[in-house]
Write a structure and sequence with these properties.
With about 525 residues, the protein is of the alpha/beta class. Helix content is about 60%, strand content about 10%.
Length: about 525
């Protein structure tokens, strides 16, 4: 966008000369007003904004110094001001400086001198805009850090105070995952394509939320999947729109889906909590929905209270068949696995294999298998086991009578348990470290690494987290940021080029990650390091 400049002089030929002495558009400016005296300039400023004022001193009615004084004292404009004068008198220059004048130029105006001044204005403007952007990013980064502490359930009083002071909070709250919901399609997409699609959904939902758009969190790093957007909902959001909560959620879903032409979008709505201080409970329940949705009816919106419950008075648990299946899985006995699956299906058939029966028995099986995995290694992440199971089991297949589907899953999970029992982590993790060092700028995923080293990706993720205390994705991102910090100090490359060099195609995401890890923007980090 061109910067707006106003020229003020009572001599028409000087106004004309200033108009043509330089190529204003080439320098990034447009002349929006030519005023013949100070009063005309003030009248224009009362209704219009400008970025630069170039004014003569000697004029009728209101002279240049009086114009400058009124503009500053009455806060009419924050424009940069350059004074022109035919008098080389220090008292004029002194008065101009007192009112924050940019420069004092003697007539006749020289082209090079004027160019030098407007380019200084351009530079100051760019620096001011960049500082504002950096400040906003820093504030967003601090908000993310404090919100993550709340979600993790590790918030201290200062975290909660910061959120209450810098976040529009209401009474009852929920945490939502806004998810792109086709894992097979997502696996075929590049990081750039996923990021672009996620950005489109984010922008669409931001427009719908208006002033509440800061309740959206596109990059929660450790806690979110790359295909999800987080959202903190309060009751007032629906009430202000004259909607019920469910009407609001349906409108939110339609808006999010409008932003995603390629993939379906779903909402995972965590349980209702009475206050933002308890939002970690809602977040945890939304994460449970992330895993359990694979066993529920296909919907656009999943509510924790509605999905993670079973009415035992209407269903029967096939406990003996399930116990036998779990034992066969634990022993990796394929023959017994197949027989136990057959027994389970026959028992459910006697119960007409209703959706409620399948749901209850599947939930019980999942619960037992998670405990079985945890018995092998106490560091096993239950969310990751749930994700592994939800990707492997289809309730629709079971409802259709697909015993082969259940046999295949049970056999694979038995092998998964075998891997948990093996002491394979040392050599494999050393290989993974080397993969990161050599290919950190590429699209590394646990799934691909698991295939390369013949390990289940869920198990690989668990032993990685046990060794390093963080997820593989977070480890990779931290490594990339360290490499970026090194390049900021050692090279003069642009920030955007460094971001691309270390594997980030989305500059805003890179800057957010950098702030989260280093506590400042990349440009400020470079400046501070070089000053030190």
């Amino acid at each position: 966008m061109l910067m707006k400049v106003m020229l003020v002089d009572d001599e028409p030929f000087i106004l004309q000369g200033l108009s043509v002495i330089i190529d204003w558009e080439k320098e990034g400016y447009e002349i929006v007003k030519k005023a013949s005296d100070g009063q005309e300039a003030l009248d224009y400023l009362s209704e219009n904004e400008v970025d630069l004022i170039i004014t003569d001193i000697r004029m009728p009615q209101i002279n240049g110094l009086e114009l400058l004084e009124k503009v500053r004292n009455e806060n009419l404009s924050e424009a940069y001001i350059i004074i022109l004068s035919g008098y080389n008198d220090f008292k004029y220059a002194q008065a101009a400086i007192r009112y924050s004048c940019m420069d004092y130029i003697l007539k006749p105006v020289q082209k090079e001198q004027l160019l030098e001044n407007i380019r200084r204005v351009t530079k100051k403007r760019e620096n001011m805009i960049q500082e504002e952007i950096d400040s906003q990013r820093m504030q967003r980064g601090y908000l993310l850090q404090n919100m993550m502490a709340l979600l993790q359930g590790k918030a201290k009083e200062q975290n909660l105070s910061y959120i209450r002071e810098n976040f529009h909070c209401g009474s009852a709250a929920r945490y939502l995952h806004i998810c792109l919901n086709d894992l097979s399609a997502l696996e075929e997409m590049s990081d750039e394509e996923i990021s672009e699609l996620k950005d489109q959904v984010y922008e669409q939902v931001s427009c719908y939320l208006r002033e509440d758009a800061d309740h959206l969190f596109k990059d929660f790093f450790v806690y979110e999947e790359e295909y999800e957007i987080g959202f903190v909902y309060f009751d007032y959001m629906a009430k202000e729109r004259g909607l019920t909560e469910e009407e609001f959620m349906r409108a939110l879903h339609r808006t999010a889906q409008d932003g995603s032409e390629k993939l379906p979008v779903i909402l995972l709505v965590g349980k209702r909590v009475e206050d933002i201080s308890r939002i970690s409970r809602s977040y945890s329940s939304a994460c449970v929905l992330r895993s359990f949705k694979g066993f529920q009816d296909t919907k656009n919106i999943y509510y924790y209270e509605k999905e993670v419950q079973v009415n035992p008075s209407k269903t029967v648990l096939c406990k003996q068949s399930l116990d036998n299946l779990v034992m066969a899985v634990d022993q990796n006995d394929i023959i017994s696995i197949n027989k136990s699956v057959d027994d389970l299906f026959m028992e459910m058939d006697r119960l007409d294999r209703t959706r409620e029966t399948v749901t209850m028995n599947l939930n019980w099986l999942i619960f037992r298998l998670i405990n079985l995995a945890a018995e092998q290694d106490e560091s096993v992440n239950q969310d990751e086991v749930l994700s592994y199971i939800s990707e492997s089991v289809s309730k629709e297949e079971i409802l259709r009578g697909s015993r082969s589907h259940m046999r295949k899953f049970a056999s694979e999970f038995a092998e998964y348990l075998v891997q948990l029992r093996k002491n394979v982590s040392k050599g494999i993790l050393a290989e993974i470290e080397n993969e990161v060092k050599e290919h950190y700028a590429e699209n590394l995923t646990l799934r691909e690494l698991g295939q390369k080293y013949y390990l289940n990706s869920s198990y690989l993720g668990q032993i990685f987290r046990k060794r390093y205390g963080q997820s593989f994705k977070n480890y990779l991102n931290n490594y990339r940021i360290k490499e970026a910090a090194s390049q900021l100090i050692r090279t003069d490359k642009k920030v955007s080029q460094i971001a691309e060099d270390v594997g980030y195609r989305d500059l805003d995401y890179f800057i957010s990650r950098f702030i989260e890890q280093e506590g400042c923007t990349p440009s400020r980090y470079r400046k501070s390091a070089r000053e030190d």
